[in-house]
Amino acid sequence: MLGKTMTVQVLKIIIATGLAIGLAQLMGLENGTSAGIIAMLSVLDTRKSSLQIGWQRLVSTVVALTLGAVSFALLGFQLPAFLLYLSVFVFFAYRFEMKAAIAPCSVLVTHLWLAQDLSLSFLWNELLLMVIGAGLAIVLHVYMPSQQRAIMASRESIEAQLRAILSGLANAIYDLEDHQQVETIESLRREIKAAKRLVYRERENRLFSQIDYDLHYLDMRHNQVKLLAVMAWNLKSCRLELTEAKLLASLFELTADQLSEHNPATYLLADIEAMLEQFRARDLPQTRQEFETRAILFQVLTDLTRFIQLKIDFYATYSENERDILEEA
Known about the structure:
There is one protein chain. By secondary structure, this protein is an all-alpha fold. It has two domains: about 5-140, no CATH class; about 150-329, Four Helix Bundle (Hemerythrin (Met), subunit A) (Up-down Bundle). About 80% of the residues lie in helices and about 0% in strands. It is built from 13 helices and no strands. The protein has helices at about 5-25, 35-40, 45-75, 80-95, 100-115, 120-140, 150-175, 180-205, 215-235, 240-260, 265-280, 290-315, 320-329. α7 (about 150-175) runs antiparallel to α10. The longest helix is centred in the last third of the chain and has 30 residues, at about 290-315. The protein is elongated and about 95 Å long.
């Protein structure tokens, strides 16, 4: 079944093509079906891309018709004249990154060749075909389904999975054979990538409002997930004493409970520092196993500190008022 965005896109192509051909015929233009083909090619995935391509094609049409008229005037309505036009226009299109205009503009130039007509009225006819086709595609892109609701749902899902992973790490401290959180981490990585694609699509559909909040949020969560993967790997080989295990597990559970998009989580750093102070006050390790365990423990606490600091830095970047504005945008 087609999604909402794809359904709207299909309808836009059909409507733009029909309206372009109908309007061209209503205006009495020759080769009116070409306006429909141009409209079909101009309805792209995003508002910004359609506007950009539409503008490029309008500019390129003026250049192409001028080059075509000059070529046919110099060499007659023969293949060498068309190849001369094509050589110059293709170079122009590649030089100014307007490759998408080569095919539709060249179709209009072939109309000059077939009709053997270089009159201003016929040139105007061809220009109007492009204006109608590209213009209707741009007009129809005024409506573009917003992805913001889906993005917000992804943020909620990401936070729920992060809480599950943190709770899973707390359990893994007692059960070294519990590797379920590793699969959850991989699943979360894929979801963050999918959410980023939604954000990029949404940004392309906002012509005058570039919002970076969602992208920065997902980058922050992505970096946190990388740290979680490292912590999960370290905990697999870390056998803690009961007291240490309880303290560390409680930190993971506390972090999970307080995990929220709008929670600065500053005080969690104080809890980690307090735990580090407790460990520093203990006797030095006496065996190799104790030394390795203590080293891993400090590494896990360091990574957990970085995990929380990423959120604190993100929270500091966006004040409450800024977040409210972005949420409403």
